[in-house]
């Protein structure tokens, strides 16, 4: 049975997903410049009415632009260098979330865990000064690249959680994690109703995979999905060199909801995809659902179909 985060449906939650532009490395870029950029972006999201704003995966790697070319042109050196900015990062987003009275998912910070390894950690900052995080669980080939002695540069997370946002429970799936149904299902069964997906893709194929993953997770779990993306080109960075995709807010494709599952998406120069998540309307779709993937999920566990077997021709 899926847990319920509240006894009654909460008020609509206004959310904003960023199509965040990574600029070519500007002269004199430093942490103060990064902080001003965050205040500008998040201030716009708040003016658009957002109570939850989502920034993209790898956001912290933009900070590598503050270091010398020999550092920002090398992924390992970039990751090592930005560790000195982790504490200022935490203070910055704690302050902005409080000042703007808004929940902020600050993309992800590649955080050192020791022995030259890092975790792709997505922090959520609450208006009351608290924060929590979700580490990326599944790593891409780029993230698995090896350093000395065959050790991977980035290591996967090992825990999964959900967190409260204005009376509902949300969960984070960092980019590639959105393409895997079972961890998101576990979050849904813990009461998650909004899935947050900070992402970064450098090919059209990658952008398509994450978009389809988000749509599939919305369909399976009858939940909303809020996906942020990176945009622009930054040849100074091996991780942020090319960026594709559109930020979007997704819903299940059912009666009373968009037929294509898209509540909002960025177009042109728009920086934010903004939508009001109506949980009462979402709950009402169950009564007239054309399909109910969330309710019918247990059917997959029937003993006769848990494992497929080779069968011969049947008469």
From TrEMBL:
Q: Which protein are we looking at?
A: Nitrilase
Q: Where are the transmembrane segments?
A: none
| InterPro entries noted in UniProt | C-N_Hydrolase, C-N_Hydrolase_sf
Coiled coil stretches, renumbered: none
Natural source organism: Marilutibacter maris
Q: Which residues form the CN hydrolase domain?
A: 13-284
- What broad taxonomic lineage does this protein's source fall under? Bacteria, Pseudomonadati, Pseudomonadota, Gammaproteobacteria, Lysobacterales
List the Pfam families: CN_hydrolase
């Amino acid at each position: 049975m899926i847990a319920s985060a509240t006894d009654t449906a909460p008020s609509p939650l206004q959310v904003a997903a960023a199509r965040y532009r990574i600029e070519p490395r500007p002269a004199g870029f430093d942490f103060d410049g990064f902080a001003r950029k965050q205040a500008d972006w998040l201030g716009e999201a708040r003016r658009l009415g957002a109570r939850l704003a989502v920034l993209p995966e790898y956001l912290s790697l933009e900070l590598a632009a503050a270091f010398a070319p020999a550092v920002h042109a090398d992924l390992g050196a970039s990751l090592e260098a930005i560790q000195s900015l982790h504490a200022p990062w935490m203070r910055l987003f704690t302050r902005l979330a409080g000042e703007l009275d808004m929940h902020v998912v600050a993309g992800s910070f590649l955080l050192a865990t020791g022995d030259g390894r890092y975790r792709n950690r997505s922090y959520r900052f609450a208006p009351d000064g608290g924060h929590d995080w979700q580490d990326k669980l599944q790593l891409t080939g780029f993230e698995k690249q090896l350093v000395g002695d065959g050790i991977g540069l980035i290591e996967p997370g090992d825990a999964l959680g959900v967190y409260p946002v204005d009376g509902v429970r949300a969960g984070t799936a960092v980019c590639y994690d959105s393409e895997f149904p079972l961890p998101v299902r576990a979050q849904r069964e813990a009461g998650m109703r909004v899935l947050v997906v900070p992402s970064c893709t450098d090919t059209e194929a990658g952008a398509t995979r994450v978009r389809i993953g988000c749509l599939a997770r919305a369909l399976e779990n009858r939940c909303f999905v809020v996906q942020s993306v990176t945009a622009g080109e930054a040849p100074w960075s091996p991780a942020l060199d090319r960026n594709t995709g559109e930020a979007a807010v997704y819903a299940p494709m059912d009666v009373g909801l968009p037929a294509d599952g898209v509540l909002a998406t960025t177009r042109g120069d728009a920086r934010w995809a903004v939508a009001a998540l109506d949980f009462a309307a979402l709950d009402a779709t169950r009564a007239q659902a054309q399909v109910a993937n969330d309710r019918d999920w247990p059917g997959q566990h029937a003993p006769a179909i848990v494992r497929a077997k080779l069968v011969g021709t049947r008469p």
